[in-house]
Give the backbone structure.
Amino acid sequence: MPTFSSFDVRSASGGKIEGEVTLGFGFGALLGFNFSNHFGVQGEVIYSSLAQKYTERELERRVKLKYVNIPLLLSLNTGKTNPVNFNIVAGPQLGIRVGSSLITSGDNGIDNPNAVLSAKKGDIGFAFGAGIDFGLNTARTIRLAMGYRGVRGLLDISDNSKTITTDSYYLLDRSHVKTNAIYVGLSILF
């Protein structure tokens, strides 16, 4: 699940910095229940590694956040058992942060304040997407799926509650996670 993400990053002077689009990744599993051939729900568990890169004052920084995301989605289908099925999904997503890191390179002797990466343990967002799946066997129970998934975080993930030194600053500032991903996977209908 190649993932492109963005979140707001603060500079040492307090302004906001635009980061570069950086490729992250994800993988996961889903379990769904179809009420009919056209309507269902699905719960997922997805591991996502989100990254953003930016340059400030001759320093290159790469921010990484790792989450286990649990979306609960409503699914509308053109026909779940058809040879080709188009679908759209939407619903809430709970994110649990399982790691974070800040990698800094360069500086050429310039005096730079210390950036502090501090993010909350959880996030709540809105997940949405669209896809297409193809029946691979004659019974159409083994399906190849591909599509798009977006998530917009609803909560501020920055945690500015820790004590920092006077030559430090918080890197995340009123930041909300925004991701766009494509996926490819297999599913089995029971």
In short: Residues 37 and 80 are 5 Å apart (CA to CA).
